[in-house]
Amino acid sequence: MASVSKSAFLYGDVLGGNLMFSKNPYYPMTVTAKEATLILEINKDRLFSLFSDNHEFLKSYLEYVSDHTVILGDRIKHYVNRTIRESIISYLDYECKKQNSNIIKLSMTKKALAERIGVQRTSLSRELAKMREDGLIEFTPVSISLLHKSIK
Hints:
By secondary structure, the protein is mainly alpha-helical. About 45% of the residues lie in helices and about 5% in strands.
């Protein structure tokens, strides 16, 4: 299986909710917790019973799944036909907001980052070097510093 980008699940998120009533209801990725985590598992029959008994719960579930489907569609649109620089900038912008810092600590190797944005590692390194030459970033093996508040 190809390496897939890492996403963060937060408190209260639903994992695999869109797969629950699928003919193949198995989450296609490995999930690893960085800290002690409590997961509530609800089987399909119990969930269906909850939907039947509580229409507000059903409505909330459908809204959640629908909203995340829209987010997924937007992500797919953003990744299609993007330049390497645009993909890097999108990643850096996301991490900048997530880490609340212009110094982004890399939680993965450059090879893993390249796989995440769908390019070869050498292409990523070449574009990062160009971005450094353009005065947009500085980087080390463990971090990337944004030299402007927004590099878009």
